[in-house]
Every structure is written in C-alpha cells, then in structure tokens.
Design brief:
mainly alpha; elongated; about 0% strand; Four Helix Bundle (Hemerythrin (Met), subunit A)
C-alpha cells in the first residue's frame, strides 16, 4: 500500500467516524465542509489540467449540495427561508456545472464563498444566544447570502429535517 492510499484510508475512516457520531447540526456542517473540499479539489485539478479528476470533484460537490444540503431542507417548517436556500443551492449547482464546462476557477471561488458564508451562519447557531450574536456581529459587505445567513440563524432548527 503506497503512502497516498494509506492517507486516503485514514481520511476516509476519520470522515466515517465524524458522520456516525454527529448530531443533525454537525451533519450539516460536515456537508458544507465536504462541498468546499470537493470544490477546492476541483480547482486544484482544473489548474493542473487534470480534466477527468476535475469533473469527478465538481460532480462530487454538486452531489453534496443537491443530495445532501438541498435534500435535507424542511420545506414545510422552514418556510420562505428553506425555499430561498433551495434556490441558492440550485444556483450553486448550475454555477459548478458552468465552471466545469468553461474551466473557470473564478466560478469555483464564487460557490465556495457562498458555502463559506452559509457555513459561518450555521456554525453561529450553536452558540448561546446565536440569533443575538448574528444581529450584533459586524456584517460583511452585502452578498447574495447575507439575508439568508441572518435568517438561517434565527430559524435554523426548522430549516433542515432532523436526522
């Protein structure tokens, strides 16, 4: 077994352990992390002109967004915010497909940034008085996800299905 295979096996075991011991909140964080890692991998492969590996990484990111994040939304209880998040996830998937077709790393950066903003908002709801913390925190420059991030912290328990 070569060194890369050993490292991959170690990482796979670590991921499986995190998933099996995670609560629903942590699972969503793991999905955000996984999508961002897949996008980073796609960008790396894109820059190295490793086209098949780039396509595989982009597909992996799209799968995480569509079958993980979007599929876990609770449309009924999450109301308008869940609908807006679903639309944002669809947008991200389309942009990733476009990045893959056009070999455009800037689009990968855009989607990774959107995921980072949502992940930060989701992380903030773990803290006591999270809604107040989000309201009091310095707000970043207006972005597509700013309204979603603030609203996400306020209604997070209703937005995603309970695992």
């Amino acid at each position: 077994m070569n060194a890369m295979t050993k490292i991959k096996s170690y990482v796979d075991v670590g991921i499986e352990t995190n998933v099996s011991s995670a609560d629903p909140h942590k699972l969503i964080l793991l999905l955000y992390q996984g999508a961002q890692l897949a996008i980073a991998s796609a960008k790396n492969h894109m820059l190295r002109k490793e086209i098949p590996l780039k396509g595989k990484s982009v597909s992996h990111a799209i799968t995480i967004i569509d079958e993980g994040l979007k599929a876990s939304l609770n449309q009924e209880a999450g109301g308008e915010l869940a609908g807006n998040l679903a639309s944002l996830y669809e947008y991200m998937s389309r942009r990733l497909l476009q990045a893959n077709l056009e070999n455009d790393p800037a689009i990968l950066d855009e989607v990774s940034g959107l995921l980072a903003e949502l992940r930060t908002a989701w992380e903030s709801i773990r803290k006591p008085n999270a809604a107040a913390a989000v309201a009091e925190a310095p707000q970043p420059a207006p972005a597509k996800t700013a309204a979603y991030g603030a609203g996400l912290a306020a209604v997070a328990p209703r937005v995603y299905e309970r695992a």
